[in-house]
Protein: Carbohydrate ABC transporter permease
Amino acid sequence: MNRRLSRWSIEAIAVLASVVIFWVPLYFVILTAMKDPQEASLMNLDWPSSFQLWSNIKEVVAARDYMLLRAFWNSSLMTVLSLVLMIVFCSMAAFVMQRRNDKATPWISFFVLSGLIIPPSIVPTIWVLDELNLFKTLTGIVLVEVALGMPFCVLLYRGFMATIPREIDEAAVVDGYGGYRLFFTIIFPLLKPVTATVVVTQAVFIFNDFTNPLYFFPGSKNATVQLTLYNFTSQFVSQWNLLFTDILLITIPPLLLFIFFNKRLVAGMTSGSVKG
Structure:
């Protein structure tokens, strides 16, 4: 009985903490986005006297020659291209690392793991991109996002790959499959759960990325959704109602993605440990 009570108390504390940490800020964002400039400047949780959400949305979308629409296009294109490259290369690398067993395997694993430990360097990366004529280009920022996300995705794919029996590979080889045909025809379709996890986690991270587009993809024409926050805040004047409306608009796509793929996300994260 005491164990049940302690378990319920821990769960209640966890739920309360999640409400305070996640839902209260979201409620504050929605509430402020519905206010006029005067009420929004008070920065409180009072209910607005008049709802200005629709007019705030129209003003945010039309700001700076409809920069938000262009930013949504840039962020979406950057996210989709990065995900495609990440899924293909990370799954292939994980397959090779999981299936081979020689002296080079521990070193390869060490270098992949070091990608999660060693922080990225801004100035050298800019220099490399500039030398390759990729600075301020979509190709350059996509390569940066892929490079930063590869270690996590490779380890995630590798953990799931361990649950796939080697007998499947051997049977496919006997049937005449080999190389790329073996991987993309036999192995890759089995990776749907972990691929869904990679899509959700990395899509949210890349779409909401602020620092990498700021450093490696500058320019008003290259603006991403997070950089549009600068449109409504400055050193001297901040339009809080428009700022929080912008935050609300750019939060909706990742939130919907997480809600629809929540079950697949959990399944992909835990399948390797459960089956292993």
Summary: Residues 100 and 265 are 28 Å apart (CA to CA).
